[in-house]
Design goal:
The protein has about 350 residues and is α+β, with helices and mostly antiparallel strands. Helices cover about 30% and strands about 25% of the residues. The two termini are about 35 Å apart.
Length: about 350
């Protein structure tokens, strides 16, 4: 199975299944002599792990990460960094009734058609459990960029829409993101979402979401102008996350409705430097960073695993109704926030190292 690696100069490869003994990744290309401890990674993993509120999966995984290589006496050595997280709360029996069924909205059918075999325990390799290792790799990427760019660098994500209910951007407050279970920057919307998601669960359904990620302190010049555009790689990174069905950079699709004189970011000289008067481009022009904030949004579809019976088929070709049991997120977009942050951090670390190699 190819396609388990991401990046070029900063590259990580993940492995493991949802209900296997462990998941892990190998991160290569990390510069030597960067201070790194397991706690530096655990900090970010704890933001993603399940079971932290009634609004997420109740699977109880501590997600304790362990180094197996690449770190010695508290610093990176330049060798590949191997990371492992043990799965401690597997319940493969939850999936025994659907092992011969293709669940609507899942990768069961496509995996089976491609490989002739599939791990039905929670989706196996296709499970969002894999994203824990993306967050681990993203933590290392943040360390690289923090060492290079200092305290001005930050990657922050927020849930800006749940189902049909969007935030009021006039109430945006980054401090609120850490104060509610939804990573929501609008305290009023966060309170409304509690009732909405409780209703979704009682209806035995699920909800989608839109997440916005902002990277601050990114210098100009990152990205390649043709096939390896910075924003193209960001789009690929976000689209590779489970259940993501749409990505936009800056104004995105809304920009298509603007007249040309409003759509583009004008510039002026301020204190001897060129400055942009807006950021509709989302921090990239011609595939290269402008020095402004990188702004990206991605849409996550409603969780596919719901107890409401849905029409499906069996491996043998019979029509059936499928009702999925087990522990699932009513809105998988909630835990996608730290995953989106991590993937953008990985893209930025990759392009920073590539930029240094070519341009010094």
């Amino acid at each position: 199975m190819p396609g388990n690696s991401f990046g070029q100069a900063f590259r990580f490869t993940t492995w493991g299944e949802s209900h296997g003994p462990a998941i892990g990744c190998v991160v290569d290309g990390v510069p030597p002599r960067i201070p790194l401890a397991e706690e530096d990674i655990q900090l970010w993993l704890d933001r993603r792990r399940p079971g932290q509120s009634r609004f997420t999966s109740q699977r109880r995984e501590p997600d304790r990460v362990k180094f197996f290589s690449g770190v010695f006496e508290g610093v990176t050595t330049g060798a590949p960094i191997a990371l492992v997280i043990e799965n401690v709360d597997q319940r493969p029996r939850d999936y025994s009734e659907i092992k011969d069924l293709f669940r609507p909205g899942h990768a069961d059918y496509t995996y089976f058609k491609k490989y002739g075999v599939r791990d039905y325990r929670g989706g196996g390799r296709a499970s969002a459990r894999e994203t824990a290792m993306r967050v681990a790799a993203g933590a290392i990427a943040r360390k690289i960029l923090g060492e290079a760019w200092g305290k001005r660098f930050a990657v922050r994500g927020a849930l800006v829409q749940m189902g049909p209910h969007a935030i009021d951007r006039s109430r945006w407050d980054w401090a609120e993101v850490e104060q509610n279970p939804f990573w929501c920057p609008d305290p009023v919307a966060a309170k409304q979402w509690e009732g909405y998601l409780d209703g979704v669960r009682k209806a035995r359904s699920s909800a989608g979401a839109v997440i916005e990620v902002v990277a601050e302190g990114v210098p100009p010049g990152l990205g390649e102008p043709v096939y390896d555009k910075l924003d193209a790689d960001i789009a690929k990174a976000l689209m590779s996350i489970n259940a993501v069905k749409g990505v936009e950079i800056g104004d995105g699709f809304a920009g298509a409705a603007r007249p040309g004189e409003e759509a583009h970011d004008e510039m002026r000289m301020v204190d001897g430097r060129a400055e942009f008067l807006s950021n509709r481009a989302g921090g990239a022009l011609g595939g290269i960073s402008t020095g402004q904030d990188i702004v990206a949004r991605f849409a996550v579809k409603p969780t596919s695993s719901i107890p409401t019976p849905r029409r499906g088929v069996t491996v043998d070709g019979a029509d059936v109704e499928v009702s999925v049991k087990g522990r699932h997120d009513p809105c998988v977009g909630i835990r996608a926030v730290p995953v989106g942050e991590a993937m953008i951090a990985c893209v930025l670390a990759d392009h920073w190292l590539r930029h240094k190699a070519q341009c010094g």
